[in-house]
UniProtKB/TrEMBL annotation:
Superkingdom, natural source: Bacteria
The keyword ATP-binding appears for this protein: yes
Protein name as annotated: ABC transporter ATP-binding protein
CDD domains associated with the record: ABC_Org_Solvent_Resistant (cd03261)
InterPro entries (alphabetical): AAA+_ATPase, ABC_transporter-like_ATP-bd, ABC_transporter-like_CS, P-loop_NTPase
MF annotations from Gene Ontology: ATP binding; ATP hydrolysis activity
Domain ABC transporter: 18-254
This protein's UniProt keywords: ATP-binding, Nucleotide-binding, Transport
Source species: Leptospirillum sp. Group II '5-way CG'
Length: 264
C-alpha cells in the first residue's frame, strides 16, 4: 500500500490539490454523476474504482475539464476550473500530467520525441536541455536504450512507462492515471503499480488513479472511492474497504456474479 507523507501539520492541507463539490453530469436521460463531493489530499494516491459505465472516466475528464459539469464545481489548487477561461485553464493544466489508458503515444514520433513533446511546446529550453530532460524522465521510469525506437517497436508495458515519462515531463504536481494496468499481464501490472508508487515517493505528486483492477487498487491506494450508479458508495482506506459489510462493495471487490450488482 502507498505510504502517505505527513503533511497534515505543515499547512499544505489548507487548500487541497483537488476538491469536488456537488458534481452532476448527464448525457440525455442518463445521469452519470450524481452530486459527487470529495477532497483529494496532497501527496496521496487516490484510487477511484467501479464497474464499467459507472462514471469513473467521466469524473477524470471533469478534473481535466475536458467535460463541463451540468452543476457543481471542481477546485484544482484552489482554482474553480469550471469557471476558468481558456487561457487560465491552459495554464492550470500545466500543473497536471495525464497517463492515458492506451498510452496515446504519437506513432510517428520516437520514444524520446514523445517525452520531449511537451517540453518543446511549453518551455523555452534549448534543444540540448530538452533532450536531457526527456532522457532523465525515461531513466526515472526504468527505460534505457529505447529512445530511438517508435511505439510500434516496444511492448505494451514499455508504452505505459513512456506514457508516464511523458506525463511527468513538465514536473506536474498532480498525476491522473486512466486504467494504467489495463491490457497488462499480472507481472507487468505489478511493475506499473510499483512505478506509480515510485512517482509518489520520488516526486511527491498527488495522484488520481482510475481502475477496476482490485489488486492494483489495494497495492497503491492511500484511499479508495467506489462509484456505483453515479454516486459515492464508499470512501476510505483499503483496510476500511476490506472490512466493509456493504453487499454491493463486497460483490465488486470479490468479483462475484451473485449479488446486488447485475451482470448484464
Amino acid at each position: 500500500m502507498a505510504v502517505l507523507r505527513d503533511s497534515m501539520n505543515s499547512g499544505e492541507m489548507e487548500i487541497p490539490p483537488i476538491r469536488v463539490e456537488n458534481l452532476w453530469k448527464s448525457f440525455g436521460q442518463q445521469t452519470v454523476l450524481k452530486g459527487l463531493s470529495f477532497e483529494v489530499h496532497r501527496g496521496e494516491t487516490f484510487v477511484v474504482i467501479g464497474g464499467s459505465g459507472q462514471g469513473k472516466s467521466v469524473l477524470l475528464k471533469h478534473v481535466m475539464r475536458l467535460m463541463k459539469a451540468d452543476r457543481g464545481e471542481i477546485y484544482v489548487q484552489g482554482h474553480p476550473i469550471m469557471s476558468l477561461d481558456q487561457k487560465e485553464l491552459y495554464a492550470l493544466r500545466r500543473s497536471m500530467g495525464m497517463v492515458f489508458q492506451e498510452s496515446a503515444l504519437f506513432d510517428s514520433m520516437s520514444v524520446l520525441d514523445n517525452v520531449a513533446f511537451a517540453l518543446r511546446m511549453h518551455t523555452s529550453l534549448s534543444e540540448k536541455d530538452i533532450l536531457g530532460e526527456a532522457r532523465e524522465k525515461l531513466s526515472m521510469v526504468g527505460l534505457k536504450n529505447v529512445e530511438k525506437k517508435f511505439p510500434s517497436e516496444i511492448s505494451g508495458g514499455m508504452k505505459k512507462r513512456v506514457g508516464i515519462a511523458r506525463a511527468i515531463a513538465l514536473a506536474p504536481e498532480i498525476l491522473l492515471y486512466d486504467e494504467p494496468t489495463t491490457g497488462l499481464d499480472p507481472v507487468l501490472s505489478s511493475a506499473i503499480d510499483e512505478l506509480i508508487l515510485k512517482m509518489q515517493s520520488d516526486l511527491s505528486v498527488t495522484s488520481i488513479v482510475i481502475t477496476h483492477d482490485m489488486k492494483s487498487a489495494m497495492r497503491i491506494a492511500n484511499r479508495v472511492l467506489f462509484l456505483f450508479q453515479g454516486e459515492i458508495r464508499f470512501l476510505g482506506t483499503p483496510q476500511d474497504l476490506v472490512r466493509s459489510n456493504d453487499p454491493v462493495l463486497s460483490q465488486f471487490v470479490k468479483g462475484e456474479t451473485q449479488g446486488p450488482i447485475g451482470t448484464l
